[in-house]
Design goal:
Layout (H helix, E strand, L loop, with lengths): L4 H7 L6 H12 L1 H4 L4 H8 L3 H10 L5 H12 L5 H12 L4 H19 L2 H13 L3 E5 L3 H13 L5 E4 L4 H7 L8 E5 L6 H12 L3 E6 L12 E4 L4 E2 L2 E2 L2 H17 L1 H17 L8
Parallel strand pairs: 1-2, 1-3, 3-4, 4-5
Antiparallel strand pairs: 6-7
Helix pairs in contact: 2-5, 4-5, 8-13, 9-13, 10-13
């Protein structure tokens, strides 16, 4: 990202040609829609040629329009209100059936995450989790669902796992007061990034703990504190945050961690199966 992209476009307005000014004006006024338009569609919307849109991107020092588009998408993710998210979803899905439209978008998110995930960072995260004295997990808003899920399964493997609730700053510090060297904080946040998760990362960083950040990109505010960032492609589906790709990445982490601790995991589950059976936790086959 080149500083604040919208501010840069605004400041460069006098340098643009007549057609480029039309593009710039539309982006500044409708950035949430422009970010997901092709060069051809954006050009048609403001009545300029596709080549003018490409030259506009070059004027902003991007290699081409796709780079400008990705930069704009990354830039606006944390700005969109719930109403704007619904508008973007309607324009992206168009006339498709919601089942087809949304599921295809989710499939694409998982595929893009799989193609871009760093195996080196993933293995490092597994090492840190398996060797940690204490494991803290924090996520707020929709990422709280991911944190709860991860806490549930890691608790079946380890007895040193704590879930930090999505609370105010004072309560956050109280729950993390003992975190320190040899411990790890697994922090989860996606646009719009939760302030409590950023504060948790800063506190863990200042306390000397390891930080695994599960987030969407290098521009995430969690990354500055993380010694092991893991990226999962996330995007909005209307006012709903799509967490399918982060959930898949978390599933992979849990499987990898359990494989590293196979003997203790088997012992734990043998004990749990006996308890579940004795207390009729699951309905028996009729």
């Amino acid at each position: 990202m080149k500083d604040d992209l919208l501010q840069r476009i605004s400041e460069m307005m006098p340098e643009f040609s007549k057609g480029q000014k039309l593009i710039a004006k539309y982006i500044l006024e409708h950035y949430e829609k422009a970010a997901y338009m092709t060069a051809l569609k954006l050009g048609n919307t403001v009545n300029v040629s596709e080549s003018t849109v490409v030259r506009f991107a070059n004027k902003l020092d991007f290699e081409g329009y796709p780079q400008l588009q990705r930069s704009l998408q990354s830039h606006i993710k944390n700005r969109l209100t719930s109403i704007q998210r619904m508008d973007v979803t309607r324009s992206r899905i168009g006339t498709l059936n919601p089942v087809e439209g949304v599921l295809n978008q989710d499939i694409d998110k998982i595929r893009r995450t799989m193609d871009s995930v760093s195996h080196e960072a993933f293995d490092k995260a597994v090492d840190i989790i398996c060797s940690a004295k204490n494991i803290y997990i924090q996520g707020a808003m929709s990422s709280g669902i991911l944190a709860n899920f991860m806490h549930y399964y890691l608790r079946l493997i380890f007895d040193n796992v704590s879930h930090i609730g999505a609370v105010g700053t004072n309560e956050l510090y109280q729950q993390m007061v003992h975190i320190g060297k040899g411990d790890v904080l697994i922090a989860l946040s996606f646009p719009r990034y939760a302030t409590s998760t950023i504060e948790a990362c800063k506190f863990a960083y200042d306390s000397g703990a390891h930080i695994i950040a599960i987030t969407d990109s290098e521009s995430s505010p969690l990354v500055q504190y993380a010694d092991c960032p893991l990226y999962a492609y996330s995007d909005m589906v209307s006012f709903v945050d799509s967490i399918v790709a982060p959930m898949s990445l978390i599933n992979a982490l849990i499987v990898a961690v359990s494989d590293r601790n196979r003997e203790s995991v088997e012992l734990n589950f043998n004990k749990l199966e006996r308890l579940w059976e004795r207390n009729e936790v699951y309905k028996k086959d009729v």
